[in-house]
Design brief:
- Chain B: It is found in: Cytoplasm, Cytoskeleton.
- The complex is a heterodimer of chains A (366) and B (149).
- Chain A is mainly beta.
- Chain A has one domain (5-303, 332-365): Methylamine Dehydrogenase, Chain H.
- In chain A, 44% of the residues are buried.
- The longest helix of chain A has 11 residues, at 308-318.
- Chain A is built from two helices and 28 strands.
- Chain B has a domain at 49-149: Alpha Horseshoe (Serine Threonine Protein Phosphatase 5, Tetratricopeptide repeat), CATH 1.25.40.
- Classes of the chains: A mainly beta (366), B mainly alpha (149).
- The interface between A and B is medium-sized, with 20 and 19 residues.
Chain lengths: 366, 149
């Protein structure tokens, strides 16, 4: 297992990050702006390429589509689509009419990059698509039966189904079919006829849902909740039927994010500042198998050289030469906010990236 | 305005405010619970504390009135007070993670009652050992749990 690649990018918390498709640059949220860093600089250090300035409240999420468009959403209730310019200058922003009266909390491009969905505290999901005639992005609202803030969204590979997790502790799967943009989707386990806003699944997990993902085969969904649990929800053959729910309670602090490495392996991370892996399937259940960057396997001397520099640093910070430092043994020094896939092989995801409240983006091996 | 952070902005929302799901919990009366409490007292009498704890955490009266809940909690407090602090760890290790979750919930609620505060030391001992045995999971689950005592 190779060493994690650690990028110390910001003094502020990074709420979301996304690598470009070619993995040569990374976009991070930094308060009201987005910073894009070039990672191929000769110095070996990330070099700030461009800062995207337009929002006037903190940016809560961002995403990059397959064709390189960046979408950002912010507490100022707006979303912007940034289209890269052919000459390489600063991407041009286009305002999206979300029609919401509370902060936007999460945003995700559909896999083909033609639509995106924005979740918000206004208890709606805005599904946005480009209207060529007027040359702008417009939105359609999914309202019912959402009762509270949407915290996470994930698209089905068919570009039509949309899963959402919310603070009313429900996970739901909706159809976000837009006439004229989408072709009729094939029948899946989630349903046959799918006009816009069709509710395909609704289940109460009993606690805030922080993140939700379809598994790579899109046959079931995984969700992490604030009761420090991983939940797997398997749909049944009937309409809105839930065949099986597996709840894996753990002794960790709550998880903020999850990704599927394969259909039988999930990586989660959150307030414990390091990643934890679950493996299993519907028949045998799921269990925690190992941790990545596990602090229990490290000792102080691994990361700290008992040098004079360290002694003076402690004197400076704490006014004592006590050499036991307050830093954590993990790479991340604060909550991990988002996990994203970084590198994939035919067998599944082999590397993933994390960003956290400590202003770091780190790439780990699964 | 002085304390603007505490203003409930949702009251001006024309649409309804957040209403939690109906959990459809049975509303047990004190009579319904009487046999169970008797059973627990028998376990205490025969010093079979593992079974006493297991019956306490099984199907707690979440949907009942506060008075019924209070009576039930005092029985739980008796069980917790009967155990010696030296045997707490051993007792906890015989419970499943779900059972410890419920037990920690009871301890939290008992801490808010007058009777619980009188034996605060014992409760803290139980709490401390529970966290040592199963980790911090029960704390976050208590805080995010819709099933309340």
């Amino acid at each position: 297992m190779s060493q994690p690649i650690e990028l110390d990018l910001s003094k502020d918390p990074i709420y979301d990050h996304c690598f470009s498709q070619d993995r040569r640059s990374v976009a991070i949220t930094r308060a009201n702006d987005v910073d894009i860093y070039d990672l191929t600089d000769v110095s070996g250090r990330p070099r700030l390429l461009v800062t995207l300035k337009h929002h006037d409240k903190p940016i809560t999420a961002l995403d990059i589509s397959v064709d390189g468009k960046i979408v950002t959403c912010s507490q100022d209730r707006n979303a912007l689509v940034w289209v890269p310019q052919p000459d390489g200058s600063t991407p041009k922003p286009t305002l999206v009419l979300l029609r919401i009266n509370r902060a936007a909390t999460c945003v995700k491009w559909s896999p083909n990059g033609k639509k995106f969905a924005v979740g918000s505290s206004a208890r709606v999901i805005s599904v946005c698509y480009f209207e060529g005639e007027n040359d702008w992005w417009i939105s359609k609202h999914i309202k019912r039966p959402l009762k509270s803030t949407i915290l996470s969204l994930d698209w089905h590979p068919n570009n039509v189904l949309l899963a959402c997790g919310s603070t009313d502790s429900h996970v739901r799967v909706f159809s976000a079919y837009i006439k004229g943009i989408d072709s009729k989707p094939a029948t899946t386990v989630w349903g046959e006829r799918l006009p816009f806003q069709t509710l395909c699944l609704d289940y109460n997990l009993g606690s805030w849902v922080h993140d939700i993902k379809f598994d790579p085969t899109a046959e079931f969904i995984g969700a992490v909740t604030h009761d420090a649990s991983l939940n797997l929800i398997y749909p049944g053959p009937g309409e809105q039927e839930v065949a099986q729910v597996i709840k894996v309670k753990t002794s960790f602090l709550p998880f903020r994010s999850l990704i599927f490495a394969t259909s039988s392996r999930i990586v989660v991370a959150g307030h414990d500042c390091y990643s934890i892996v679950f493996e299993g399937d519907a028949q045998h259940g799921w269990k925690n198998t190992y941790s990545i960057d596990d602090p229990k396997k490290k000792t102080r001397s691994d990361i700290e050289n008992q040098s004079a520099l360290n002694m003076f640093r402690q004197l400076d910070l704490k006014g004592s030469s006590d050499s036991t430092s307050a830093s954590l043994l993990t790479v991340h020094q604060n909550t991990i906010n988002v996990l994203r896939p970084f590198q994939q092989s035919t067998a599944g995801i082999t590397k993933f990236s994390t960003c956290g409240n400590d202003g770091k983006v780190v790439v780990f091996d699964v | 305005m002085e304390d603007w952070r505490r203003v409930d902005v949702d009251q001006y929302d024309p649409e309804k405010q957040f209403i939690a799901d109906d959990l459809e919990l049975p509303n047990y009366s004190a009579q319904d619970l009487e046999p169970k409490i008797q059973q627990i007292r028998q376990y205490i009498g025969s010093n079979d504390l593992v079974n006493a704890l297991k019956s306490c955490v099984q199907d707690p009266p979440y949907g009942s009135t506060d008075i019924v809940k209070k009576g039930y909690l005092l029985t739980v407090l008796d069980v917790l007070n009967t155990a010696k602090q030296s045997e707490v760890k051993e007792l906890l290790s015989q419970l499943s993670i779900d059972e410890v979750d419920v037990l920690v919930k009871f301890i939290y609620v008992l801490m808010t009652t007058e009777e619980g505060q009188k034996s605060g030391g014992a409760l803290l001992g139980w709490f401390d050992k529970a966290i040592t045995v199963v980790g911090e999971g029960p704390i976050v689950r208590y805080m995010s749990d819709p099933y309340r005592m």
